[in-house]
Specification:
Immunoglobulin-like, elongated, 2 domains, 3 helices, alpha+beta
Length: 166
């Protein structure tokens, strides 16, 4: 009994190896290109533009926070949805003695937690001493309400609160 083997029809040649390697790396490059494009089109930006300067500003921010705490101000912000679908923000400012704080500029902003491109500023106007109000077109979702109170170029109060707007 003799074993007769048939010659294999498939031969691995240098050309097949070369084509396989080129196709493999072309596939990897194509997937990388798609992922890079997706990452750059969906990323909203860097939270801190210059980390070194932000690090140097820490002591100033800490001193401002201590001064803010020493003032014992009571700041109440109410964000509600109006009948026409806009968001209405009312901010009440009172000092340690309960006296309304007036003559200040309040910068209010709803910052999206994941995408800085979706941030919405809210222009506030003083309606009465210590009471500021404003409206903005804001979609529902989670937001960070940022309040900065300034008088004469000096920052007197800063807060950041996570809210859910329905």
């Amino acid at each position: 009994m003799s074993l007769v083997t048939r010659p294999s029809e498939f031969r691995l040649t240098g050309r097949i190896v070369l084509v396989s390697l080129v196709l493999f790396f072309a596939t990897v490059a194509a997937v990388n290109a798609v992922m890079i494009r997706a990452a750059t089109m969906t990323f909203g930006g860097v939270e801190t533009v210059n980390a070194y300067q932000a690090g140097l500003a820490f002591n100033r921010a800490h001193a401002a926070a201590l001064a803010q705490d020493a003032r014992h101000w009571k700041v109440v912000a109410e964000l509600t949805r109006t009948a026409d679908g806009t968001a209405a923000l009312a901010v009440s400012l009172r000092d340690a003695g309960g006296v309304p704080v007036s003559g200040v500029v309040v910068d209010a902003r709803l910052a999206h937690p994941a995408d800085a491109r979706r941030d919405r500023p809210i222009a506030l106007h003083e309606r009465a001493p210590g009471r500021l109000e404003g409206i903005a077109d804001v979609p529902p979702g989670q937001w960070d309400l940022l309040l900065d109170v300034v008088r004469g170029g000096e920052e007197l109060f800063r807060s950041k609160s996570r809210i859910v707007l329905r």
